[in-house]
Amino acid sequence: MLAIRLVKLIEKHSKQLSCELTEKVWNSPRCSDLHKVPSNELEARTHEIYRNLSDWLLDKTEAELERRYTELGARRAEQGVAYSHFLWAITSTKEHMRAFVQREGLSDTAMELHGELELLFLLGQFFDRALYYAAVGYERERDRVGGRQRRRRGDEQRTFV
């Protein structure tokens, strides 16, 4: 199946892809808030996606995807990264991978094109879910911190009354 061969090709080039993406994201004004994230953490995260793509697309359950990306969303909220910058970074990861697939896919036959389209569908589905769960984690962390701040402000107001 061509889709699996393309996934293996992505995994084989995972280090190169993650370095390229990290530089792209690091230099984008749409992701400038990611400077709050240590660069080695950012590169390790992108490398993890590329290196283990077959696991993420074929083996991981919805619950595992939910756990990983709600944790990541909460971490970025905790780090004070603007949600729009975080969203753009995930979208850039998807686009970078899609560009690689289109560049390397070399679909000469209808079957190869079908395999490439299948992979692009799986990638789209994966990243749509990742974005959703990342948003859930981000919002939970923001609400948790916001609730704590509101409680503190309420305590301060009671002190002055």
Describe the structure.
- The model has no long low-confidence stretch (mean pLDDT 86).
- The chain is mainly alpha-helical.
- The chain has a single domain, classed as Globins (Globin-like, Orthogonal Bundle), CATH 1.10.490.10.
- It is built from 7 helices and no strands.
- Work out the count of structural domains: 1
Strand content: under 5%
Largest β-sheet summary: none
Q: What is the H/E string?
A: HHHHHHH
Query: First CA to last CA: what distance?
Result: 71 Å
The stretches of 5 or more residues where confidence is low (pLDDT under 50) are none
Please count the beta strands (DSSP E, at least 2 residues each): 0
Helix tally equals: 7
Q: How large, in whole angstroms, is the Cα Rg?
A: 19 Å
- Please identify the structural class as seen in this structure: mainly alpha
Relevant CATH superfamily: Globins
Residue share in helices?
over 70%
The CATH class is identified as: Mainly Alpha
